[in-house]
Amino acid sequence: MNQHRSDLHTLAAAYALDALDPAERDDFAAHLPHCEACRRDVAEFEATAARLAGATAQDPPDALKQRTMAAIDGVRQLPPQVPATGPDRRLVHVLRRKAAPLALAASLVAAVSFAGLAAWQYQESQDAQQQAQQSAQQLDAVSTVLAAPDARTAHGRATNGALTTVVSSARQNKAVFTATGLPTPAPGQTYQLWLDQDGTMQPAGFIHSDGTVPLAGNPADATTVGLTLEPTQGSPHPTTKPLLLLALPA
């Protein structure tokens, strides 16, 4: 990335991702204390990268221990082994004979419970792996744009107070959208992104909460990024007043 000194402002994303060569990093580090805009950009990109990386980590399900303990508590134990002497020998023999089918039944019930628990754990694991894979793919897509040598940045504020940033790369023909301070939408609604292409708003994906997402579609043919509140499943065209109309960085 051999950038001219006048282009130092464009290196914020690459600096945050540690994607600069040593000379560029030294130049940008010297520039950073004197540029509030670059400090803000670096802070936002670092926070976004941390959130996306954290999204790939998966904690064990909270209900796993409770389900396991509940299954264990439901297993009947065999009667204790006691010496069969004196007049109680027949009684002990009868009790053992009757306890065997009960123990077998209890074992079968426990086996079924643990089999169900194992199947549930497997599905949870599969879902977690799929979510982690999707998060990793999203992180890779975002990082590609942020680290692009020709990355350009634009900032805006939505009417609901959220701070927004768009980073685009003409070379990658991709753009990403970052939001901070998004209010929680009403039930049944979410935030939908749009690209203005020849005066027509085209769907460009969703952002459900604070974070960074790649914009769907072709940013090379777009001039503006829009943000609206739409039904959870999305809309083919905006149905509410735009919360944000932000010109794509040139």
Describe this structure in words.
The protein has helices spanning 12-16, 22-31, 36-54, 63-73, 89-146, and strands at 152-157, 163-169, 174-180, 189-197, 200-207, 211-214, 224-231, 244-247. The protein is an alpha+beta fold. It folds into 3 domains: 1-54, Arc Repressor Mutant, subunit A; 63-143; 150-250, Immunoglobulin-like (Sandwich). The strands form 2 sheets. Strands 1-2-3-6 form a 4-stranded antiparallel beta sheet, covered by helices on one side. Strands 5-4-7-8 form a 4-stranded antiparallel beta sheet, with no helix packed on it. Residues 1-6 have low confidence and may be disordered.
**End-to-end gap:** 19 Å
State mean pLDDT (0 to 100 scale).
Answer: 76
Low-pLDDT residue intervals, each spanning 5 or more residues: 1-6
Give the overall shape: globular
CATH class of the largest domain: Mainly Beta
List keywords for this structure.
250 residues; 3 domains; four-stranded antiparallel β-sheet; Arc Repressor Mutant, subunit A; alpha+beta; globular
List the helices and strands and how they pair.
Layout: H1 12-16, H2 22-31, H3 36-54, H4 63-73, H5 89-146, E1 152-157, E2 163-169, E3 174-180, E4 189-197, E5 200-207, E6 211-214, E7 224-231, E8 244-247
Antiparallel strand pairs: 1-2, 2-3, 3-6, 4-5, 4-7, 7-8
Helix pairs in contact: 3-5, 4-5
Task: Write a short abstract of this structure.
This protein has 250 residues and is α+β, with helices and mostly antiparallel strands. The protein has helices spanning 12-16, 22-31, 36-54, 63-73, 89-146, and strands at residues 152-157, 163-169, 174-180, 189-197, 200-207, 211-214, 224-231, 244-247.
